[in-house]
Prior knowledge:
The structure is a single chain. Helices cover 30% and strands 36% of the residues. It has helices spanning 26-36, 41-49, 56-73, and strands at residues 14-22, 81-99, 105-121. By secondary structure, the protein is of the alpha+beta class. 24% of the residues are buried. Strands 1-3-2 form a three-stranded antiparallel beta sheet.
Amino acid sequence: xxxxxxxxxxxxxxxxxxxxxxxxxxxxxxxxxxxxxxxxxxxxxxxxxxxxxxxxxxxxxxxxxxxxxxxxxxxxxxxxxxxxxxxxxxxxxxxxxxxxxxxxxxxxxxxxxxxxxxxxxxxxxx
Length: 126
């Protein structure tokens, strides 16, 4: 009598995680996201652990969340997961300012971004 179950947004062998309101520009975040695209999750976690970028810690948390979703919610094998997609989007921009010379006003934009990571299970080839 109740509602039908919502259809899955991803395929049967995929899981995803999304992080919103990351305090960095999308351009800087995309550099870190490009670093892990297409890699096995174990290698991607190692790369993020030893990265010198400040935002890499938050990207690592999102990747760990996607791995946990794959294991607990969808029953996928963690050893066979790869980072299928990692994309970055814009979020809000806080607009601040600073007084400048001759009564002018200098604009300061503080951008936020969001990150979506999709992991996929692939079978090892012999």
